[in-house]
Amino acid sequence: MKHFYLITLLGCWLMSCKKDAVDAFGETSYVYLANNLSDSSSVKPIEYSFAFHPGANKDTIPLLIKLIGRLSDEDRPVELAVDASNTTALPGDYELPGPNVLRSRRAFDTIALVLHNSDRLKTGKFKLRLFLNESTFFRLGPPGNRYIDITFSDMIARPKWWNEDMERLFLDAYSDTKYRLFIEATGIADLTGATETEKRAYAIIFRDFLARGRENGEVYVDEHGQINVSPNLL
Asked: What is the CB-side half-sphere exposure of residue 120 using CA atoms within 13 A?
């Protein structure tokens, strides 16, 4: 009987502790950064290049924040700051226009990060690290989701899909200048997995773009000379 009494008391104590923990958790709100709605693992860095957005002087990157806790009927400020010791970008390269909030009745929201293009972004990649701070409204979620690195530039590099077959059959010799023009002409930066028919169609669009430009007095040259598509393009 004594053992039964002790077990009963222990069980009641454990149930009481568990209830208190849930109640306490329910009154506490946590916020963290994420890459998408379905993945709560450590947030992955973001890499962005203005080279894939011809003519853009600035662009907005939405940063996803998620809630652990109860929804609120009011907007709640989210404190996001720059980690200067882990940032190589200059203040003029970016802005957080705000307001940075988790809106009412939402379990997730986005914070707008605006990146600004400039000539110096053509010569190097620059990193911005943003991190969450605790506030009167939120504690912080998992350690791996408390900061995010955004690397950005206006640089471009030869993609894997622009291989020897792509040169021989469709686009001829690669250059960074030519790749930028191809993106401008087609609106496409990645032909990974494209069929032969799709590659041919985009090469023809590019060829026609060059022809129209030259008719209007444009000069398209790179380190190889005149920019053209492959002579084998049918």
From this structure: 7
Q: Residue 96 and residue 52: Cα distance in Å, rounded?
A: 22
50 confidence band (pLDDT: 50, 70, 90): very high
Confidence of residue 12 (pLDDT cuts 50, 70, 90): very low
Domains in the chain: ranges and CATH: 27-153 (2.60.40.1740), 164-226 (no CATH)
Residue 74 scores a pLDDT above 90? yes
Alpha carbons 179 and 29: distance in angstroms, whole number: 47
pTM of the model: 0.80
